[in-house]
């Protein structure tokens, strides 16, 4: 990135500003106080969520509860899709999960990729990867435009 006259990096614009504003929106969501995580929108149609799981999200048999799988996969796919839409918030209309391995404490990454759709309905996939690089779950979601303007949401801040 080019530096400004005072040696500072200028604020992002266009798509980059939208990605940073979506990251801000994610960080501001109250649910993420329960699921400490960080969203990274890498490029159009691709998002990553970094997080660490511990015993606080375990079910009675001592592994991560399915709500955590769903939350992270849905969010990664959602933000991959919403990276293509700069005016309105998308809504999840369906999400299918495939849980392949139990997860225990440690770092995880959810990677979301836009698959198709650019008007009203979007399809995106996500996969959940453990610290060893093994896929532990995957999912596919459909998302549609809402009537909720991104610019009207308090967490959506273009810097």
From TrEMBL:
Residues 62-137 form the Thioesterase domain. GO terms for molecular function: acyl-CoA hydrolase activity. It comes from the Bacteria. CDD domains: PaaI_thioesterase (cd03443). The keyword Magnesium does not apply. Keywords: Hydrolase. This is PaaI family thioesterase. The lineage of its organism: Bacteria, Pseudomonadati, Pseudomonadota, Alphaproteobacteria, Sphingomonadales.
């Amino acid at each position: 990135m080019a530096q400004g006259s005072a040696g500072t990096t200028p604020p992002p614009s266009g798509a980059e500003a939208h990605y940073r504003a979506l990251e801000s929106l994610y960080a501001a969501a109250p649910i993420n106080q329960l699921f400490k995580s960080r969203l990274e929108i890498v490029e159009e149609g691709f998002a990553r969520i970094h997080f660490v799981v511990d015993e606080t999200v375990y079910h009675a048999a001592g592994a991560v509860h399915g709500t955590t799988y769903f939350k992270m996969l849905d969010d990664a796919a959602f933000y991959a899709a919403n990276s293509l839409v700069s005016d309105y918030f998308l809504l999840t209309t369906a999400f299918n999960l495939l849980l392949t391995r139990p997860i225990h404490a440690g770092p995880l990454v959810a990677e979301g990729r836009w698959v198709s759709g650019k008007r009203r309905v979007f399809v995106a996939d996500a996969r959940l990867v453990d610290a060893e690089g093994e896929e532990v779950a995957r999912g596919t979601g459909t998302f549609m435009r809402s009537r909720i303007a991104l610019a009207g949401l308090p967490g959506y801040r273009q810097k």
